[in-house]
Amino acid sequence: MSASMSGNTASSSSSKKSLKAFSDDIWKNKTAKINAELFTLTYGSIVSQLCTDYERDFAKVNKQLYSMGYNIGVRLIEDFLARTALPRCDSLAKTSEVISKCAFKIFLNVTPQIGNWSSNKDSFSIFLDENPLSEFVELPMDAARELWYSNILCGVLKGALEMVQMDCDVYFASDVLKGDQTTELRVKLNKILKDEIPAGED
Amino acid sequence: MSQKIISPSTSVNSTAHPGSTGYDYTIGPQQTLPELPVSSSTTGGGIGGGASTAVSTTLPLPSVYNESLNPNARNQHVSLSAYAFLFQELVSQARNASKSVSEIELRLHRSGYHIGIRLLELLNFRSSVSAGFGSSSSSKAFFSKTAMNPSGNALALNGSLSSTQDEPSLAQGISHMKRRDLKPVEILQFIHSTVWSYLFGRVSDDLVKSSERENEFMLIDSAPMLTQFISSTNVQCDFFVCGIIEGILDSASFPCNVTVHSVPEPNFEQKVVFVVKFEPQVLEREALRA
Q1: Which of A36, A71, B179, B268 is geometrically suited to a Cys-Cys bond with B222, CB 3.0 to 4.6 A?
Q2: What is the domain-level CATH number for residue A128?
Q3: Closest chain A residue by Cα to residue B64
């Protein structure tokens, strides 16, 4: 069932970081794959359908994409933890590293850059050099002003982080589809949700 | 919006009407991204650069066509679970917006249809790019080779196209476009093999012609990839794939109706059959060809 490995362009550079090697291994050997373009096209189909449904009210489309992403995120974290069996991250820096090197890698096969830390280390940015969602995409003029095309990613991160007791704000700061230089996703940690751990679990 | 509709000169400055949208035949293909950093451009010319300002931006914005039409695209896979999550949201979106089961299926079908009409073009285009025209280094080699040996009219066309691009255009890798499929069986085989391999990494399990009806064909998939995690049979989510098939066939001028039927078998409980029912005019056209 799993797709063939040919054409997988995982970098063969010396993997100094163990987390990177770890994720590469999961991606290569333990992940069923599907054509990334089918993924891109399906997402495009969803977004364009939403734009039609909401009569090009892009604020509503953004919101809907976000809530779809949230629904995915709260489930996806289960899948992620089952695959990786990673322990709890002890700092936000560690969390950011796991998100970029592990989560993005094993789900979307990209490794975005992390940067732009705030001075008190409670927020950071994810720079998506490659975005499998927005391949083939050029936004029409009206959409380019308001639509955050890949807003579903924000919802996914929000939902997934919330399930590991991290209450975060996740939003796009810029997008190359809007003519910006980079695609920047901002993650801001509000608080750790301590109370929501079910009794009897650590 | 001071959009000039008719412009007598082809040398019109493309920045003269920044509010314009869409294709302007007096200028030809151009970048349509809004407020592309013309204002923040560090090039000396500033706004007066004419057509070149569209290209000489501060960051080398890759053309959506040049990059993604390349048959050897960089990143070929995402995880199936990421797709399954997305597909699940597609289905629930369709469900929330619908009142009946058939409406859900119609919406899924429509989503797939839009993919199908794009896929036909994309796959045909890619298979027309000659082998070896892939990474930028090999494409440069290809370019220099053809430049040394100028033959055929394709080169003249390509030369003019590539003059505005820094890297050689993908068009140089195409000597002639792939012939279109003209017979129903040919286009169905294209779906059975090329499309299925592209989408699901394998050919479909069978392609059969109906023995009862002249205009019916069946594509069989024993283990549908997209719906393998969906257990409910109330809504047939494979209508999404129906839409893809119908989109391809429609844009290839084979108007038809595609439906899907679940045919569980002991070893393949999720086996589905896609029934392609061509419109009568397709058969009439076939009769004329014979």
Answers
A1: B268
A2: 3.30.1380.20
A3: A136
